[in-house]
Prior knowledge:
It is a single chain. By secondary structure, the protein is mainly alpha-helical. It folds into 3 domains: 15-185, no CATH class; 203-289, no CATH class; 295-372, no CATH class. The chain contains 14 helices and 6 strands. The strands form 2 sheets. Strands 1-2-3 form a 3-stranded antiparallel sheet. Strands 5-4-6 form a 3-stranded mixed sheet. A hairpin with a 4-residue loop joins strand 1 (246-252) and strand 2. The longest helix is centred in the middle third of the chain and has 33 residues, at 153-185. It is elongated, with a radius of gyration of 30 Å. 21% of the residues are buried.
Amino acid sequence: xxxxxxxxxxxxxxxxxxxxxxxxxxxxxxxxxxxxxxxxxxxxxxxxxxxxxxxxxxxxxxxxxxxxxxxxxxxxxxxxxxxxxxxxxxxxxxxxxxxxxxxxxxxxxxxxxxxxxxxxxxxxxxxxxxxxxxxxxxxxxxxxxxxxxxxxxxxxxxxxxxxxxxxxxxxxxxxxxxxxxxxxxxxxxxxxxxxxxxxxxxxxxxxxxxxxxxxxxxxxxxxxxxxxxxxxxxxxxxxxxxxxxxxxxxxxxxxxxxxxxxxxxxxxxxxxxxxxxxxxxxxxxxxxxxxxxxxxxxxxxxxxxxxxxxxxxxxxxxxxxxxxxxxxxxxxxxxxxxxxxxxxxxxxxxxxxxxxxxxxxxxxxxxxxxxxx
Length: 373
């Protein structure tokens, strides 16, 4: 899981100290910014304000005066400044909803494009949103410079209120993205969200800890080299399919939208125990992994007083040749053990083999679970 998530999906080098996030391609970010301001690849309308904003930002020294003058044209009546307050409110709410829907689609396009590359996409989205935030700051500052003109005072205040609403929506999305990034790789410089609690461990480090623990358990076991070779081949054949089950998606709310993680049939929030869910879903591959073991991985061992013992597991004959086979997990190729019958209690067997009925047909259980219990 560490190899799949940390190395491929997140693009991290866990051996690097301190841990550094991979660099984002400036050209890619520029392209996404250009798509936002010019509406390319978007099916949803951007609204009249964004179209005019793109023209303002295209100037070396952004000057919104022409844009302001166009809004004073009584023939077009672009902004309902002379209308009753309730009509102005309807206009502002409408522009806000258009912007929210447009921003959501644009973020979705970025995440989908990065997903196609088998990247998590949040890092690119974060840096792109930061750039977009800077553009809005430039627009707002350029309009504030005209605030001394009494002729435009009311109009400027109206337009600025809409841009400030845009920025607030953008900041909300940016905060959500930063929170997810903090959960996966830890808090980063230039983030606006608060740091997570000191006792919080980022997902990448938990996955790396699981990897090290598993490797430590297995590396001195018979057949480790053979199993590692089988795993590497399996990983190469199945990692792409696995990555396709892992993606961030957007969920629309009334006044905003949230980012969630879709993992197989689970929908995860940033506050969920993500490493535990990742680990749980690996059980989908349990039947495959249990077929990797071979009888030559087992070393024979003689048990004194064999009459009180029974053996379990598909290769238990090779491990304990002088014991009788117990009618339990007879076909399990990944577990070989000798049980002292006189000391085994029914509840202990239920726990060890994850079954409710001793006389039933128990499913195979992971060897590390048995070791822990």
